[in-house]
Design goal:
By secondary structure, the protein is α/β, with parallel strands linked by helices. Helix content is 20%, strand content 30%. Strands 1-2-3-4-7-8 form a six-stranded mixed β-sheet, with helices on one face. A six-stranded mixed β-sheet has the order 9-10-11-12-15-16.
């Protein structure tokens, strides 16, 4: 039997078309979950059904539709199940960019602060954390085995909003054109929402995504100032 490649399972959960990911090593039988929210039972059950042990939760950013939590700040009642509910079921570490540590209170020693280019071993594979601010100060993407999980930084044909508290359109421009633009064209792209389909390549996005094609920061800011951006 040949060597098995990286395990990557994409789950579309919740009413906002969120993509939750399981990423791991099928030989070591261990995986991490990216942005656990909405249907914690589905996440845990999927990993179990595939014979995978959950060892960590990776957070692209701390908006409630990606990590769960109270909806009071959205002016709505109730809460979205997420990281806290997952920790109640499975003991694991939660990896968040250091700029957004404060937005996940109460996790204590379960929480690990990470920074740009930090790495995490998952069985035979090494996952790299890429800091891509813009949508939020601590937005980050995850690169493993030529696959990029991009959260709300880069969507297929679009990018995340930059008109929210903590957003920074100029940082988004640099994240798209330089931080992610520097990755090889063959890199597979897996976004945080199903707004343009389940996957693409960075090469396709560099050619076809208008938000990666602005010639200058000033042009990008002129368009982003009009808020003509997909909800993210």
């Amino acid at each position: 039997m040949g060597e098995q490649g990286v395990y990557l399972k994409q789950l579309e959960l919740g009413p906002m078309q969120n993509f939750v990911y399981l990423i791991g090593d099928p030989m070591a039988r261990e995986c991490v979950v990216v942005d656990p929210a909405w249907e914690v039972d589905t996440i845990v059950d999927t990993a179990e059904a595939d014979g995978m042990r959950l060892t960590g939760a990776l957070v692209t950013h701390t908006h409630q539709d990606h990590v769960g939590g109270s909806l009071a700040s959205w002016g709505m009642p109730g809460r979205i199940p997420g990281v806290e509910e997952l920790l109640a079921r499975v003991p694991l570490k939660v990896y968040v960019h250091k700029a957004e540590r404060e937005f996940l209170p109460g996790l204590g020693s379960d929480l690990v602060k990470v920074d740009n280019h930090d790495t995490l071993r998952i069985g035979r594979f090494t996952l790299t954390f890429l800091h891509t601010p813009g949508h939020t100060p601590g937005s980050q993407c995850f690169l493993v085995d030529d696959r990029l999980v991009s959260g709300d930084t880069l969507f297929i044909g679009s990018c995340g909003r930059t008109d929210l508290p903590g957003s920074d359109p100029a940082e988004m421009y640099y994240s798209l054109t330089q931080r992610l633009g520097a990755l090889p064209d063959g890199t597979l792209l897996f976004p945080g929402h199903n707004y343009g389909g389940p996957s693409s390549t960075l090469g396709n996005e560099k050619q076809q995504n208008p938000f990666m094609r602005f010639a200058s920061l000033s042009e990008f800011l002129r368009v982003m100032g009009g808020n003509r951006v997909t909800l993210g």
